[in-house]
Amino acid sequence: MYWYEYCPKHVKSKYQLLVFKDNQPFLPLTDYYQDCLGRIDKSSATSYLKCLLPFFKWLEEESNYQGNRVQWNESEGKIRVAVEDYLQHEMSCKVRDKDSFRFVNLTNKSPTTISRFLSALKSFYKSMIRLKYYPHHNPLIDGQAILHSYKEEVRGVREDKPRMPSVAGTEDPVIHRRLTDSYFKIINEEWQPKIIDDMNLPYQVYQAGKKVNWSQREMIIARMLFETGARTSEIIELTVGDYRQRRSHQEVSTFNKGSHGRKIKFLRFSKDTVKRLFHYIDTERKSYDENHLGFEQLPDDAPIFLSANGTAFTYHAWYYHWNRAMKVNELSFNPHKARHWFVTSRLREIHNISINDVEIQQRKNELIKYMRWKNPDTMNIYEHHFDEAKHREAHENMMEQMAQRERDYTKQHKSSGKPKLAVIETTKIELVDEDLQELLEGLE
Question: Could you write out the DSSP letters of every residue in 212-238?
Answer without folding.
Answer: TT--HHHHHHHHHHHHH---HHHHHT-
